[in-house]
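Issue 218. Parser rejects a valid record. Input:
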Amino acid sequence: MRARNPAGFGVVELSVAALVLALAVAPVLQMIGAGRARGVSEDRLLAIHLEARAALDGAAERIADGELPQPADSTEPVDETTPEAVTLGFEADAQVPGLWKVTARAWHIRADGRRVPYELSKLVRQRRAS
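Output the parser choked on:
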């Protein structure tokens, strides 16, 4: 009978070690993939926020300077078919003359593919001419 070489590992031991390593590494790789997807989603949300904020600030500045929004200035609310578009809505306050609520709306596509509405609003008072 031949003596075993105690210095090496057998095929069974190497197979078990490879299985344990694969089971340990798989969840880590899944977390890395989910983190990347979330990072991309957060980058998109930041881009939507900045675009909506710029549109909102521009409209608010025009109103504050005395330019009254016309019905044609309000754009139709965006729906799920136009996720990148930012629309503006204007609403005059019934109790305070010269006070307007300006709203910027867009759709945000999350990492899991769901579309959620994103909205920013700002109250703006028209400056009185001096």
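Fixed in the parser; the record now loads. The CA atoms of residues 80 and 116 lie 9 Å apart.
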